[in-house]
């Protein structure tokens, strides 16, 4: 399974990167290919290419703010292949949300 994700929180510091780590760790444990874009105090890092988004099986939006360049994700959202979750929740329960993403 190929997973792409975006993590972002209002201050763009701790939760952004903790959510990134939680997603990457859980996906790697399951043998999934994963790429995580962060939108934090440093701006956009590890920006997802449109091709990667299009090829992904699922999109996880672990965000508490509006995503920059969000139009890139509209097709995945319209197809029902996206999961939106609060960054704090995915940090606490990564397995639960990756399980949910698998069902999309």
From TrEMBL:
Pfam family, one: PTS_IIB
Ranges for domain PTS EIIB type-2: 1-91
InterPro entries documented for this protein: Bacterial_PTS_Sugar_Transport (IPR050864), PTS_EIIB-like_sf (IPR036095), PTS_EIIB_2 (IPR013011), PTS_EIIB_2/3 (IPR003501), PTS_IIB_fruc (IPR003353)
Molecular function (Gene Ontology), one example: transferase activity
Membrane-spanning residues: none
Protein name (database record): Fructose PTS transporter subunit IIB
EC number(s) on file: 2.7.1.202
Keyword Transferase listed: yes
Keywords recorded for this protein, A-Z: Kinase, Phosphoprotein, Phosphotransferase system, Sugar transport, Transferase, Transport
